[in-house]
Amino acid sequence: MNATSGRHAVDPYATDLVAETDLLAALLAGADPSLDVPTCPGWSVAQLLRHVGRGHRWAAQMVASGADEVLDPREVVGGKPPDPDPEAAAQWLRDGATELLDAVVAAGPDAPVWTFTGPKPAAWWIRRRVHEATVHRADAALALGVPFEITPATAADGISEWLDLLAARPAAEEPPLPEGRTLHLHATDDGLGTAGEWTVRGADGRVTWEHGHAKGDAAVRASAADLLQGVLRRIPADDDRLQVFGDTALWRDWLARTGF
């Protein structure tokens, strides 16, 4: 097995990581590095690229060292892209994805490593970085005024991955959903089946979720791509692409309480 095939075989999300990072790199390579990114206040296109590329390497270096605590992002080796060459910076971004996959191959996909949600197998970071690249590709597309295109399956998985992160958060005095209240999300794309529906419940200061159809106190319907942008606050809560039913205040409060 050669290095390339080994990288792609290490985890089902490995191909997606390369593809999503490549799409983001291609988008940013032709952009003005100083352009503002409205959905990431205070960031420029150059900062967005650096954030994702450094993040890939940050995860890779934690995997490579078997870290049991978080690595300070300022200590990431090679954490700054070449400047000012946009093409070289775009390749630096792509190389970050490869570095992470190589680290997981070397460590083994099941090797334990620090994550936001406690110790997890090293391969956990591949899926996390897929969706980090995806959401920031949406940011770049919005900044550049071009369509954000993503397969329904990838967008739906991004919603599920985000809900996993939220469900792992500690109990809070003001949780995303009040006790016993429910939010139902429904992607309208054909072919997703139950993978395109999510029922989220508030319980004990936290949230739980499951796939499937159920009546919620609030419900939001949209394509998976628009729903992903909605739950990640890349489009407004009342955007015309989102159909919101029931308790609209519950939906707005959910968004206000689920920031990064």
TrEMBL record:
Residues 17-141 form the Mycothiol-dependent maleylpyruvate isomerase metal-binding domain. GO terms for molecular function: isomerase activity. Gene3D superfamilies: dinb family like domain. PANTHER family: CONSERVED PROTEIN. Residues 154-251 form the MDMPI C-terminal domain. It comes from the Bacteria. InterPro entries: DinB/YfiT-like, Maleyloyr_isom, MDMPI_C-term_domain, MDMPI_metal-binding, SCP2_sterol-bd_dom_sf. Keywords: Isomerase. Signal peptide: none annotated. The keyword Isomerase applies. This is Maleylpyruvate isomerase family mycothiol-dependent enzyme.
